[in-house]
Amino acid sequence: MTVRSSLVFLLLAVTFVAAQANAGVEKKDTIESLEKKTVEVRPGKIILDSSELAREGYRDFLDLVSSDPALRAEAMRRLGDLEVEATEADQLIENIESLDTRGFDNAVELYQMLLEAYPDYRRNDTVLYQLARAYEIGGRTDEALAVLNELVTRYPDTAVVDEVQFRRGEMLFLRKSYNDAEMAYREVVEYGDASRFYEQSLYKLGWSQFKLAWYEDSLSPFFELLDLKLAGVEIGEGDERLATLKRAERELVEDTFRVLSISFSYIEGADSIDAFLAQRGLPKYTYIIYSNLGDLYLEQERYQDAAETYEAFVTQDPYHPKAPVLQVQVIEAYKQGGFPSLVLDGKKSFAERYGMDGPFWNRNPREENEAVAGHLKSNLTDLAQYYHAEAQRDGRKSDYQQAANWYRKYLDYFPGESDTANTNFLLAEILYESEEYGDAVTEYERTAYGYPFHEKSAEAGYAAILAYREHEKVLSGVAKDEWHQAYLDSGLRFAETYPEHPESGAVLTTVAEDLFRQNRFGLAIAVGQSVVGKQPPVKPELARTAWTVIAHSQFDLANYTDAESAYYSLRNFTPADDAVASQAIKDRIASAIYKQGEMARDAGDLETAVTHFRRLGQAVPDSAIRATAEYDAAAALINLQAWDRASVVLEEFRRDHPDSEFADDVTQKLAVTYLESGQVGQAAAEFERIADTASSTDDVRREALWKASELYEQTGVLAA
User: Fold this and answer.
1) Does the predicted model carry a pTM greater than 0.70?
2) Where along the chain do its domains lie?
3) For 110, 117, 356, 569, which has the most beta carbons within 10 A of its beta carbon?
4) DSSP of 293-333, one letter per residue?
5) Residue pLDDT, tens place only, 621-667
6) 641-720 sits in which CATH class?
7) Domain 363-497 is classified in which CATH homologous superfamily?
8) Cα gap 676→641, rounded to integer Å
């Protein structure tokens, strides 16, 4: 039977089968009736070179059919499509950089013959589309663009007009023909969001208009794109504000924000944002638009423009959740620009606008705005300290009053903060310095006895006694007697509350060291903890010694978890420039973690062992025992038969420790884990690696190569 007769037979057979299949579907058949049917699935055979067979079939068909123009045109189109697809597939499979374009050239010739021979063929728009595609893939982009231009001219209503216009836009944009590109992208945008090229075209339409210096025109497509991309997206903070988006989309959005900032800077800055959004409405990301423009001005060292831009958003909606953040940026811009008086005014505005008793907190819950509270604390502190310093320098009564005012606001807004007691002490100090001794006594005593013990407790208690004495000088009669009795009570309270000796910390540290040298580790730990727990805190060098005793003792007692924690604390007291000590602590941390892994492994808790072995490298990446820990983690996972996880660890081991003494063993273990997890191809590669290993014997090489061949045969790689 000839190829042609075979083809005719095949076409008839397909027609017959299709007819039989349609006839077999009766009206009484339903989806539910299919549940009772069984389907026998027979393994089929892979038809190699099916694309070439199809092309041969169409070539034979063209030789047979010469009298039917419709069939001949259809066959020419399909043959051309197959030529393009086959050549493109070869390019992808072989990763060919210098592509043999004969397949594309064949397709181009077929399409051109078809267009010339059958100008009225009903699918000539598709033929032109494929012709342009063949030109483009073959690197002949000028011809591709010309064909696309012809296509939109002759067939403006083609079903693929949106894609055609997008491809035209891309080619024109690359040629810097921004005007023509803009019109092409606009056609896609007008087509609407039914097109899968809609969002890309919005982006490139905006860029085309930007390149043409049509900055105001470019705003609309960019904002439309942002509305689409950020719909339903939770916008976070800082560099991770778009973390919920995929990387490509995140980069697209950030680039859109960037070009918008540039556009607004070319127009009228913040005023142009105000004007544009007044017409369009305020999207949820409005604050980012203002913030980004301000940031751009900062990069350009246009500090006042930056501050005014941030302020523009704050003025627009001062109680928006992000308004305080931009108010902080106003202050920072003036600070960078070297405008101290404007910085001071900005801090005052922030403190007055976002005080805890203000309307901002009615709209914004405290628990969701801790950063704002933090800025408020910082500004209140800065204002109080500024006026305190001014008062000490010039002695002006108004400066003393300003300082006291800001200290009191801090205490009202943050009564339970860790530094509130210290602020209370500073308030007492400013009152004492301004000779308001009676009020100073009240604040000193509140500082000394109204808070948990802190570094200023004893000092405040003693200062209260001094203030009592000063105020008593201006009193007389009963008032003086009552005041003097209060003074005595305060003195007794002070003596009873603060009996601590200033050198107690040093003494306890010495005791702790002695106990450690005697191997009395339990007592050494207890004494050391009393040292590091003292308030006010002991000197850093004493704390460092105490933490050393605690950590080493815990380690020697095999309390490795507590030892690790203590070593972390010790590290906080180790000078940054003491490289030797820092390295010793890191080594101790690594050893403590490794020991925890060993204990878990010895107890049969392999999962916990894996956790410790793996986290060693995270805690101390440069540890000398990291490779051993990773290797032990892989071994434990293999014992757990957690093949996939073991493979990951082994792969990382090979990557991070290519020269390890365990390299050959890792290869063998990888072969096993891949084999056990059904990753046949990867297992075969590892067996090949085993065969190539210098330490492998001839027998091992033969067995490894045999196993690799068997595995490759299973994957079908050899048959292909």
Assistant:
1) no
2) 363-497, 641-720
3) 110
4) HHHHHHHTT-HHHHHHHHHHHHHH-TTSTTHHHHHHHHHHH
5) 999 999 899 999 989 988 888 888 988 888 888 888 887 778 777 77
6) mainly alpha
7) Tetratricopeptide repeat domain (1.25.40.10)
8) 8
